[in-house]
Amino acid sequence: MSIDHVAIKELGVEACGLQRRTPYGMTNVSMTQLSIARHFGGCKYQGDFYTYLPHTDELIRNDVLKWQQKQKRAAKPPNDQAHPLGAGEHKNL
Fold this sequence. Notes:
28% of the residues lie in helices and 17% in strands. By secondary structure, the protein is of the alpha+beta class. It has one domain. The longest helix has 14 residues, at 62-75. The model has no long low-confidence stretch (mean pLDDT 78).
């Protein structure tokens, strides 16, 4: 039920510093005892808080979600200092 092996291979979390005493995430939540998390948006499991993702029926540990968001922000190319009026827009004075 754990997606540890998927997270490690696809997300590159082996060097991220996240603890491994609890799973990074759990799939098919609606078919388990943790299905109650669907109604509350998440749950606490072995001391860690998880967020329920209804579109994939998964619980993902909150620190993993935070790490993923940080990785996505870092992967975005930095915006160059754009012209204040926008690209290609020039005001005739």
